[in-house]
């Protein structure tokens, strides 16, 4: 199968641009040996390359490209399949944009196209190339430091009182995980997630229930979340609890129950965030909208959880106007290398900025994911990079500290 792969990267400081001709000459030999064709552009700081060939061969070359120290911040812009090659007669050709006008470069690229695959400006790969040549997306080239530029230093965890126990703990528990602003070293809130007695999935608990009992159990379980939060001593920090969307509709006086339990555990409504997903919201829409209005009127905040995992979140934003959204882990995984994910997340950030909705990036595992999202404008994060969930207690937070040798580099980015 013929694969087309397009990527962008940043030249390393140690590389002399004068050495590019020799680099391309070697790449040309290797590409011809592997039956790979392509175009390489360079504008003094960034590379843009289009590679075509058998999928296994392109993937092998790209793996070597990613480990090449002569460049960094490698981002895949397009990975697609085509019926025939765009550049059948080229092993690797360099176009140095510092020495040629953009119109000359674009025409030269068009001239290199094969007769079988007539290049037009409707071709996606060529559109990416045009965008790079014309520098139309340069403000979105977010450069980040290497992962080893940071050390992560752990704080002490919040611990509940020794020996405490609640009757509900035989049926279910809660894990707690902080949401943090890493550079300010501030815990923004704690998220309490329902789990089975041993810390397993919520389904471990819900699977033994049926019908409306599920919604009743979902609501009443939050009494334990509030009790644990008080025992941990969260002070004036916010506490996020997750509810099944229809719990607010199916259980009479659900909001009244939450308010009574909040007060009973020395908390205030304004520090409680109720997180929902769009799953199950489509039924009884009027009742659901009324419940959300009552929730906001009570002083509690509203968040949309796992944003990006379902299919109706944008419609949900028009209906409920949440205070916060938590972007799903699958949208964030390796975002520093994925052009499509970067474009989507940047659009979400712009959308939420227009609506004054706070964005939380959930499931952060790698320093590069955090750095890219921070550069894109996200301030609040959750994930094992900073703290993993802890059963019935808040874990220690590991705060990032930049290593001295990278301080100046960070100022230049």
TrEMBL record:
Domain of life: Bacteria
Organism: Rahnella perminowiae
Transmembrane segments: none
Domain BLUF as annotated: residue spans: 2-93
EAL domain: residues covered: 155-403
Pfam families recorded: BLUF, EAL
Name this protein carries in UniProt: Diguanylate phosphodiesterase
Entries under InterPro entries matching the protein: BLUF_domain, Cyclic-di-GMP_PDE-like, EAL_dom
């Amino acid at each position: 199968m013929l694969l087309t792969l397009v990527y962008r990267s940043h030249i390393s400081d140690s590389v002399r641009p004068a050495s590019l001709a020799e680099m391309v000459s070697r790449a040309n030999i290797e590409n011809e040996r592997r039956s790979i064709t392509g175009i390489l552009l360079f504008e003094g700081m960034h590379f843009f390359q289009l590679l075509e060939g058998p999928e296994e061969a392109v993937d092998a070359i790209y793996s070597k490209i990613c480990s090449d120290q002569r460049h960094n911040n490698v981002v895949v812009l397009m990975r697609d399949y085509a019926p025939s090659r765009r550049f059948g007669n080229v092993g690797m050709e360099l176009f140095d944009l510092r020495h040629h006008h953009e119109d000359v470069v674009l025409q030269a690229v068009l001239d290199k196209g094969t007769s079988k695959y007539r290049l037009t400006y409707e071709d996606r790969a060529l559109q990416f190339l045009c965008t790079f040549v014309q520098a139309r997306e340069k403000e979105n080239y977010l450069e980040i430091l290497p992962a080893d530029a940071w050390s992560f230093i752990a704080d002490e965890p919040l611990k509940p009182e020794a020996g405490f126990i609640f009757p509900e703990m035989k049926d279910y528990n809660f894990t707690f995980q902080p949401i943090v602003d890493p550079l300010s070293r501030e815990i923004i809130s704690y998220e309490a997630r329902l789990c089975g007695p041993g810390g397993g999935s919520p389904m471990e608990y819900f699977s033994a229930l049926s019908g409306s009992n599920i919604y009743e159990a979902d609501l009443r379980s939050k009494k334990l979340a509030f009790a644990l939060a008080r025992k941990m001593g969260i002070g004036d920090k916010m506490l996020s609890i997750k509810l099944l969307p229809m719990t607010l509709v199916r259980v009479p006086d659900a909001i009244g129950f939450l308010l009574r339990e909040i007060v009973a555990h020395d908390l205030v409504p304004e520090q409680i965030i109720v997180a929902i997903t769009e799953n199950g919201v489509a039924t009884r829409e009027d009742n659901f909208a009324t419940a959300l209005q009552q929730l906001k009127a009570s002083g509690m905040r509203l968040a949309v959880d796992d944003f990006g995992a379902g299919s109706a979140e944008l419609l949900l934003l028009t209906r409920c106007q949440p205070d916060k959204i938590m972007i799903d882990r699958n949208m964030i995984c390796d975002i520093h290398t994925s052009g499509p994910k970067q474009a989507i997340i940047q659009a979400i950030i712009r959308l939420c900025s227009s609506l004054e909705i706070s964005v939380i990036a959930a499931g952060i595992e790698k320093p590069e994911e955090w750095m890219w999202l921070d550069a894109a404008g996200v301030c609040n994060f959750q994930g094992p990079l900073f703290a993993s969930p802890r059963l019935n207690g808040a874990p220690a937070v590991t705060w990032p500290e930049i290593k001295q040798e990278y301080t100046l580099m960070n100022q230049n980015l």
